[in-house]
Design brief:
The protein is of the alpha/beta class and 229 residues long. Helices cover 48% and strands 12% of the residues. The protein has a five-stranded parallel sheet with strand order 2-1-3-4-5, sandwiched between helices. Helix 3 runs parallel beside helix 4 and helix 8 packs across helix 9.
Length: 229
């Protein structure tokens, strides 16, 4: 299971990590009246976020990228490095593209823009907690396409044993990289949705990918999906 066990009523348990107390307070107040989302902790630094994630085992960590000391990218890498680590949603502004891509590579499941509408923020948290789809798919794919070819510290996803996947799995990976849903992949390849899910699950295992965002990054970095010109 990813993250801590959700409450019996399906409540998503969230940790807020941001070095600005007012940002954390604003998000906490916005979520206070949302019955299916509960703020179970707050952190003001990346190091505190890592410790808190281990202590309270939330389902989702909402993580600011730019924090003093350990930044949100390194904190994300450490949190997602745990086998049962929670999913991470990155908090960003529009001028943080390079940082966001670094966070996606580190294992973040998506990103939130700080001035997004409340309902969009809550919907993103629910999507990430459920492990479904991408946050703002078109924006996420544009970002990945823009930065996928740029070298980053550490071994890139393209160094993983991609030769171990079958031709059908490569086809599925390509379509995931293009942003297709399981249903759309099913129609494209004339196979059942259950079969698509099985292929995606095997890709997660073979490519050591934690979610669809990681698969999209791998597809771009392998050249299976061409960046738009």
């Amino acid at each position: 299971m990813t993250g801590g066990p959700a409450a019996a009523d399906g409540t998503v348990r969230v940790v807020l990590a941001d070095d600005q107390p007012l940002v954390r307070a604003g998000l906490r107040v916005l979520m206070a009246d949302t019955p299916d989302i509960e703020v179970v902790g707050e952190a003001g630094t990346g190091a505190d976020a890592v410790r808190l994630a281990a202590d309270v085992r939330p389902d989702v960590v909402v993580m600011d990228i730019r924090m003093p000391g350990m930044d949100g990218i390194e904190a994300t890498r450490l949190i997602r490095g745990e086998s049962a680590g929670p999913r991470v949603l990155v908090l960003t502004t529009f001028d943080d593209d390079s940082y966001v891509y670094g966070a996606l590579r580190a294992g973040a499941s998506g990103f939130l823009v700080k001035d997004m509408a409340l309902e969009d923020i809550l919907a993103a948290i629910r999507v990430v907690a459920a492990g479904d789809g991408l946050i703002a798919p078109s924006v996420t794919r544009r970002l990945i396409a823009e930065f996928a070819a740029r070298p980053e510290p550490g071994p890139p996803p393209s160094a993983r044993p991609v030769e171990g996947i079958t031709e059908r799995e490569r086809e599925v990976l390509t379509l995931v990289g293009r942003g297709l849903s399981n249903g759309e992949i099913s129609a494209e390849l004339f196979i059942t949705v259950a079969t698509v899910k099985a292929h995606v699950a095997r890709l997660f295992t073979k490519l050591d990918a934690r979610d669809r965002v990681q698969l999209v990054i791998i597809a771009y970095e392998l050249g299976l999906v061409a960046a738009p010109r």
